[in-house]
Amino acid sequence: MTITEERERNEEKLLSEYAIKSVAAIRDKPLAKHPYRTEFQRDRDRILYSRYFRLLMHKTQVMPSPELTYIRTRLTHTLEVTQIARTIARGLKLNEDLTEAIGLGHDLGHPPFGHAGEIALKECMQRYGFEHNEQSLRIVENLEDLNLTKQVREGILRHTIADENYYTQKGITRNLTDLKQRYGYPNERSTFLEAQVVDVADEIAYLTHDLEDLLFVKLIKISEIPKNWRSLFGDQRRTAIDCLVTNVIDHANKILTKRIVNEVSLPIIYDKKMVARVAALKKVFGKIYERPPLGPKEKEARHYIKLLFEYWRSDPCIEIQQAFAAKHGAPIEVSVADFIVEQTDQEIIHAYETVFSPRTSANNSYFKS
After folding, report:
1. Are 300 and 285 within one domain?
2. Do 139 and 239 belong together in one domain?
3. Residue 162 lies in a domain
4. In a shared domain, residues 238 and 299
5. How many domains in the chain?
6. Neighbours of 59 (CB within 10 A)
7. Residue 241 pLDDT more than 60?
């Protein structure tokens, strides 16, 4: 018996009845069985060594500041999400390898400049729409062709939901036929629990690390933090993470039944009291993100991407033609979005200054307080 076979047999004994077992993994292009890695472990490794994973190191999470090396980037955020997700998966006896693979791949499709970059591409992609989770799926299936299992691809796509209200307000009708055929409507979270664990771990990670970073650079005061958050967590991030993770595990273990798993789209979440505490902190964050310097920096970032998008759409450079439009046969708007997602923050700023000249640029002010 190989190590892989032994591990698969142990999963049947040790994991919850609600967990997805490694023997159930489905891959479009089957591979010979590995002697000591399950299929989900192989997916994890393929994501970890991918080009797009390395790019996350040079993309903004919330605060743009390459000089302050202790501020989170999209890469460190991804690693924190993945570790929190593994802890929750273990507490619920779910498949940790599957959870880890989804966690590592969930943000591969994020463009430069964090959420500001995603908003800019949404505004540019009027005909097609843009969601980072859908772009992450496009990356692993088309742009890098990692040949991941169906479960990991579905988890990456459906760890979160698309903001369909945005598209409705903008009058955009997105072509979702292909996504529907493969996975179901993307505005519904996955029904399998490992993907839902990544979703809640994503929130726990950004709530706690954004708060820590904001406090560190003095963009938020202790007095601004909601009392029901301070009284429960104090000022220790590790205490906050432990409290949130414990709450999720305890609440999920209480309510998980076959009926809940089959009928409720999101059983992996905090209890009602914790939901209220989280909502209160999110409300404060919303105000902080609009203040200087974060608010103006977000506008600046959107300005960079929107101008470059229009420039490359009307006159696609050789890199776009060769690497994306010609190779993948995509419409030029989609190819330009692919190209932008492949850039780092600094590369977009450099391109902006090169195209529009230093006299019209902000002289790299995005990274300056």
Report:
1. no
2. yes
3. yes
4. no
5. 2
6. 24
7. yes
Is the domain of 284 the same as that of 336? Answer: no
Half-sphere exposure of 173 (CA within 13 A, CB side): 1
- Could you give the CA distance from residue 350 to residue 345 in angstroms, rounded to a whole number? 9
Tokens for 207, please give them. 């709530």
Digit-coded pLDDT (tens) for 136-191: 999 999 999 999 999 999 999 987 777 777 777 766 667 666 677 776 766 677 77
Tokens of 139: 């990356």
The b-or-e profile of 104-143 (16+ CB within 10 A means b, else e) is bbbbbbbbbbbbbbbbbbbebbeebbbbbbbbbbbbbbeb
With respect to residue 48, please indicate whether it lies within any of the assigned structural domains.
Answer: yes
Q: Interhelix angle for 193-216 vs 150-157, to 10°?
A: 50
Choice between 369 and 256, residue whose per-residue pLDDT is larger: 256
State pTM to two decimals. 0.92
- Identify the burial level of 2 via C-beta atoms within 10 angstroms of its C-beta, where 0-12 means exposed, 13-18 middle and 19 or more buried: exposed
Query: Does the residue 57 lie in any domain?
Result: yes
8 assigned to some structural domain:
no
